[in-house]
């Protein structure tokens, strides 16, 4: 399929060929018929994409982040941050209308064939959460419906103004959103005046003016600013014309250098509108599809969509006269130059070819290449970890492997990864990779929630599997994987517990053969993550314990040569809001041989600390490791140190996996080991602060 994107350091949008996205749980796949170009927002996005490295480095916060990264992770990490290898093009557009052609798991309100509006991008096919789309009534023009998401921005701004029948409303900025605000305000019975310096946008309407001086306005109940400008004039004009105790609502992108005296003496109220309304940027709402109760949040972004399209269906507002031009999607890249010309279009609608049929699943007719000693790999997941860690290593190991396909849920990130690493990408969807007899092994690098599902699918297709931790997020999923292993002819399952393969760990392991350890202390010092970061959302990431701290459980299991028997975990509780601080966790693990591991997973440490510190004790010896690079070991009266340069074992882990797939070595993991470690991590996450030691 084609989608409209802007690449880094290229001011001209392009149409990029990418795989059709796959709808995840709670998502619907839509074949777009129309989408509306939002010139202000999209031109701003293009400008950001073309911000130079030098301009970014002038930002003081970026300088501080760079220095911290240099101190903790070295020059290579700074280089990857400044010049990321997998620089995914920016998708443009967010207001479209089309037909549902597939639904994901858990979707009940939409069906194949439904005509819907959504916040999908400018693309032939888009996959969006069910909370971000609404069915189009039968009697409603689909082209007009494509304005719905833009309309919800205008509607939310108008709601925040708290105006009603007879209110006097001034709208500053008569671009497409400003025009929509005016029409909505008129529909509710308000007296509306529009201001815009562009004569083309004011002509033909007696209530629209090019300046406030020509309008003779005073005692305004509410001023809604929809302009996008670097000038402070809109807010200055708004404070001038607003009556005492009036409300100023900012919808557009403007400076907010307000005059305290004006606001003080008039007791003005300033509100900045957040896009479509309540739910915007809330991952619980937009990703997991959890709605807000209507009795507490009457107008969510989805209910704003519904309200706007209802006005269209009832004929209370009309929009087709706002369309300056309708352009075929194939010509979409040329549209953006029009917005930089002296005479700018008010709005442009992109029209899609709806005759072609989607190819969601297909088996490529490809002649298989002769078998070589190289392992043929398929990559599932094309996020930051894949691009900055895994792919550079696979490039180093090119004598042992060849990547034939990269797939991701969005398609765009997979295409970008394939381009940046010069992968021909013969297979671009999960189905193609899993069904291809040419693919020997798959690397599962997706978000945590679908690891178990993909492992089971890959096992059923006879693929060797390298899955990033965690293996699963629930005990039930572990049971399902176990059943799949028993049903597979030659199951090969390997988890990315790379720490055990690092040079530092291997050095200690050799020391422990003669003098076993019985105690390990593991301290993580990790950057804090936002509460709504995908890792912290249980349904997607599972939590930071099962997603990252589980590395320590595996490492202890490996160094002790023993399985975990019981585990407990605790974290501080914020008693004001009754929330557990899962970024500050204490974990205790008892092992079958009597050994013990203490794991501290902290994000509230001073970030100048090393990320991972390990202390291994037993038989009168101690081994202290900092970030798997610096080792201090005390044996008897000797106090020595050693430096390692290979890092945390990612390369070694992948090399061992490839050797295993080629039958040159055995699997370093047993299923009992993987199951016990995974279950221990799940219990530590699920039973936090239970006050009990849970048997694994």
Report on the architecture of this protein.
The protein is of the alpha/beta class and 696 residues long. It folds into 4 domains: 179 residues, Medium-chain alcohol dehydrogenases, catalytic domain (Quinone Oxidoreductase, Chain A, domain 1, Alpha-Beta Complex); 121 residues, 3-Layer(aba) Sandwich (Rossmann fold), CATH 3.40.50.720; 123 residues, Rossmann fold (3-Layer(aba) Sandwich); 197 residues, Dihydrodipicolinate Reductase, domain 2 (2-Layer Sandwich). 31% of the residues lie in helices and 24% in strands. It is built from 22 helices and 32 strands. A 9-stranded mixed beta sheet has the order 31-30-29-28-22-27-26-23-32, covered by helices on one side. Strands 3, 5, 6, 7, 8, 15 and 16 form a 7-stranded mixed beta sheet that branches. It has a 6-stranded parallel beta sheet with strand order 11-10-9-12-13-14, sandwiched between helices. Helix 17 runs parallel beside helix 18. The protein is elongated and about 90 Å long.
């Amino acid at each position: 399929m084609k989608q409209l994107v802007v690449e880094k350091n290229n001011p001209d949008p392009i149409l990029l060929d990418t795989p059709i996205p796959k709808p995840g749980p709670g998502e619907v796949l839509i074949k777009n018929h129309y989408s509306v170009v939002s010139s202000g927002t999209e031109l701003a996005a293009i400008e950001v994409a073309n911000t130079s490295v030098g301009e970014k480095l002038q930002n003081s916060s970026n300088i501080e982040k760079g220095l911290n990264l240099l101190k903790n992770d070295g020059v290579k990490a700074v280089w990857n941050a400044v010049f990321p290898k997998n620089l995914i093009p920016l998708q443009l557009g967010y207001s479209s209308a089309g037909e549902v052609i597939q639904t994901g798991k858990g979707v009940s309100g939409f069906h194949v064939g439904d005509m819907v509006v959504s916040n999908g991008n400018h693309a032939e096919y888009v996959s969006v959460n069910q909370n971000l789309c609404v069915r189009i009534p039968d009697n409603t023009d689909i082209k007009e419906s494509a304005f719905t998401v833009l309309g919800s921005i205008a509607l939310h701004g108008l709601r925040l103004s708290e105006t009603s029948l007879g209110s006097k409303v001034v709208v500053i900025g008569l671009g497409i959103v400003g025009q929509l605000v005016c029409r909505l305000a008129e529909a509710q019975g308000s007296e509306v005046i529009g201001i815009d310096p562009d004569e083309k946008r004011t002509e033909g309407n007696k209530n629209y003016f090019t300046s406030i001086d020509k309008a003779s306005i005073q005692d305004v109940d509410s001023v809604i600013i929809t302009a996008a400008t670097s000038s402070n004039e809109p807010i200055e004009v708004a404070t001038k014309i607003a009556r005492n105790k009036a409300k100023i609502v900012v919808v557009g992108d403007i400076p907010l250098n307000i005059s305290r005296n004006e606001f003080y003496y008039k007791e003005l109220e300033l509100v900045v509108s957040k896009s479509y309304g309540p739910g915007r940027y809330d991952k619980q709402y937009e990703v997991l599809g959890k709605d807000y109760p209507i009795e507490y949040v009457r107008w969510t972004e989805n209910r704003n969509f519904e309200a706007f399209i209802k006005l269209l269906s009832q004929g209370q507002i009309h929009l087709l006269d706002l369309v300056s031009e309708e352009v075929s999607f194939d010509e979409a890249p040329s549209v953006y130059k029009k917005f930089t010309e002296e005479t700018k279009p008010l709005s442009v609608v992109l029209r899609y070819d709806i005759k072609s049929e989607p190819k969601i699943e297909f088996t490529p007719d490809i002649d298989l290449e002769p078998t070589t000693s190289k392992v043929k790999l398929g990559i599932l997941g094309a996020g930051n970890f894949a691009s900055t860690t895994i792919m550079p290593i696979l490039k180093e190991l090119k004598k042992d492997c060849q990547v034939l396909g990269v797939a991701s849920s969005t398609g765009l990130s997979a295409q970008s990864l394939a381009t940046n690493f010069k992968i021909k990408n013969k297979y671009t969807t999960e189905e193609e990779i899993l069904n291809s007899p040419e693919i020997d092994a798959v690397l599962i690098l997706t978000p945590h929630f679908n690891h178990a599902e993909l492992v089971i699918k890959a096992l059923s297709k006879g693929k060797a599997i390298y899955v990033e931790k965690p293996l699963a997020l629930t005990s039930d999923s572990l049971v399902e994987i176990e059943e799949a292993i028993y049903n597979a002819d030659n199951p090969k399952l390997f988890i990315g517990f790379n720490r055990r393969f690092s040079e530092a760990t291997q050095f200690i392991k050799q020391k422990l053969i003669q003098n076993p350890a019985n105690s390990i202390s593991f301290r993580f010092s990790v950057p804090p993550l936002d509460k709504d970061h995908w890792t912290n959302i249980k349904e997607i990431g599972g939590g930071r314990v099962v997603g990252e701290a589980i590395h320590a459980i595996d490492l202890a299991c490996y160094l002790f040569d023993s399985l975990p028997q019981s585990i407990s975990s605790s974290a501080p509780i914020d008693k004001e809001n009754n929330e557990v601080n899962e970024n500050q966790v204490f974990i205790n693990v008892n092992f079958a041989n009597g050994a013990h591991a203490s794991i501290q997973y902290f994000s509230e440490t001073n970030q100048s600390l090393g990320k991972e510190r390990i202390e291994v004790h037993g038989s009168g010896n101690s081994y202290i490791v900092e970030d798997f690079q610096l080792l201090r070991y005390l044996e008897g009266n000797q106090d020595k140190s050693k430096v390692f340069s290979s890092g945390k074992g990612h390369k070694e882990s992948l090399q061992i996996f490839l050797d295993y797939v080629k039958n040159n070595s055995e699997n370093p993991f047993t299923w009992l080991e993987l199951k016990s470690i995974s279950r221990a991590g799940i219990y530590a996450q699920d039973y936090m602060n239970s006050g009990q030691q849970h048997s694994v």
